[in-house]
Specification:
There is one protein chain. This protein is of the alpha/beta class. It has one domain: Alpha-Beta Barrel (TIM Barrel). Strands 5-4-3-2-1-9-8-7-6 form a nine-stranded parallel β-sheet. Helix 10 runs parallel beside helix 12. The longest helix has 16 residues.
């Protein structure tokens, strides 16, 4: 399995973000997701949602560029999680800037729900800049949409385990993994939204998931400036993902 870590950039402030980001690099993980703050992060759950305001007030494009560069130097692939409103103005410039920073691609959580007619236009625009659109699906995404979108993209897939981050409702991991695997048999599928302990990691691994993405469970440690707790949380994730 693979591990992806998510941070809303640069939460809770620039100095703390830098410390915790550097701390994360002492651990093993494959993908780094950096959320670009937005005014209305309505597809994020309550824990992630509250990070956007402070992150927006502390946002620095130069620091973002430096962060991506350092992550790449440590052999992490870097993706951004960004809402569609960022693409509405000067789309080409925005995409070229993401590429120049070193991002491999983007997850756009509201694309297939609120901007469905624009989906392939964005895929084509990203492909032109050498960026991957990471499809974001949930258990409620219709099969036809999954087939259509995966037919136009070729990187990994982000699948929401729960309705949103920080929310947990009963789910059958076997049914969920088997369904998306049957629709996308050749694709790498990373599950996020609700990964909050070793039990669910074990269930996903046993069901054949390719990896997990985690963000909400890191926030309490960052908010309280508790680096020891931060390291313990990532160590737990490492053990669950890479352990036997």
């Amino acid at each position: 399995m693979k591990l992806a870590l998510y941070f809303t950039f640069p939460y809770p402030n620039r100095e703390s973000f830098i410390r915790f980001f550097h701390g994360s690099l002492n651990h093993k993980y494959d993908y780094l997701e950096l959320g670009i703050p937005t005014e209305f992060p309505y597809y994020d759950g309550p824990i992630i949602r509250k990070t956007h305001k402070s992150a927006g007030e502390n946002y620095s494009e130069n620091l973002l560029r430096e962060t991506v560069k350092e992550a790449i130097s440590k052999k992490r692939k870097v993706y951004t999680l960004v809402y569609y409103n960022h693409f509405k103005k000067d789309r080409k410039d925005f995409l070229q800037n993401l590429k120049s920073m070193g991002f491999s691609g983007a997850i756009v959580p509201d694309l297939l729900t609120d901007f469905f007619p624009e989906r392939f236009e964005l895929v084509d625009a990203m492909n032109e800049e050498g960026l991957s659109l990471i499809p974001f699906f949930t258990s409620s995404t219709p099969d036809k949409i999954i087939r259509d979108v995966t037919g136009r993209t070729d990187d990994w897939i982000y699948h929401g385990l729960q309705p949103s981050t920080g929310i947990r409702v009963p789910v059958s991991t076997d049914l969920m993994v088997n369904r998306i695997r049957s629709l996308c048999p050749e694709r790498e599928i990373i599950f996020g939204f609700g990964i909050n302990g070793p039990e669910i990691i074990h269930e996903l691994k046993a069901s054949g998931a390719d990896g997990i993405a985690v963000g909400s469970s890191l926030i309490p440690s960052m908010e309280t400036d508790d680096m020891d707790s931060f390291h313990r949380e990532i160590h737990m994730l490492e053990e669950g993902v890479y352990g036997e």
